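Technical note accompanying the year-one report. For the benefit of new consortium partners, we illustrate the data format agreed upon in the data management plan: each record pairs a sequence with a structure-token string. No post-processing was applied to the example shown here.
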Amino acid sequence: MDYILYEVNGAVGTITINREKALNALNSQVLEELNATLDAVDLNTVRCLILTGAGEKSFVAGADIGEMSTLTKAEGEAFGKKGNDVFRKLETFPIPVIAAVNGFALGGGCEISMSCDIRICSDNAVFGQPEVGLGITPGFGGTQRLARLVGAGMAKQMIYTARNIKAQEAYRIGLVNQVISAEVNEAGEVTVSAKDALMAAANKMAAGIAMQAPIAVRNSKKAINDGLQVDMDQAIVIEEKLFGDCFETEDQKAGMGNFLEKDKEKKLKVVPFKNC
């Protein structure tokens, strides 16, 4: 891999888009390597993924404009499909994916973050869909996922105006779940950079997810994703099936067994009230 780094720490895998000199812009090779990396994740051991970009300046600055500038109509559509296929694989990946966004998340960078289950960002993050300023539309799911996340009106405003937004506004409109700041001491000196603080927060969240029953987490992700595509009557049937699918698993037996045992021990420890 030239542009993708993948490392595993316990039950958490971290994918880093490593094209720092180009602000981690997405070209065909990056998309192909990301696709191959997802295929190589060992789902028997990894329970949560973190997706981030290399360096301090950028998560992903967008799709590679140099590559796109000479595309024909057919080639442009094919490039959009290549990105959408990878992003859809990320969105429907069996285990949760956390986007740890530092710096620029523009165009394809905003779109890939929206393909993840959860987005947390540093306070220097910048989000946007600036494509109309380049004479194109968002092509990697931006017109669809942004409207689903922040509402059609806000999505149209961001896309039509090509205006970037900062971290706190992204949090206000519901585009990100959490904003992380650098840590400073009493003298105002930075002791932990925004990027390091962001990755620590992402790893803490991922570790918390990894501690939960893996089948239940996977089924919850599938229930949410699939249910959002249909009406409520169909959605609750999806939930019922995935709920039932958890029973008779070792996770369910152990989880409920432990709860009942603790509840029993707690009741045995209750001291009866005695009149003074």
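Partners are asked to follow this layout when depositing records. The first strand starts at residue 4 and ends at 9.
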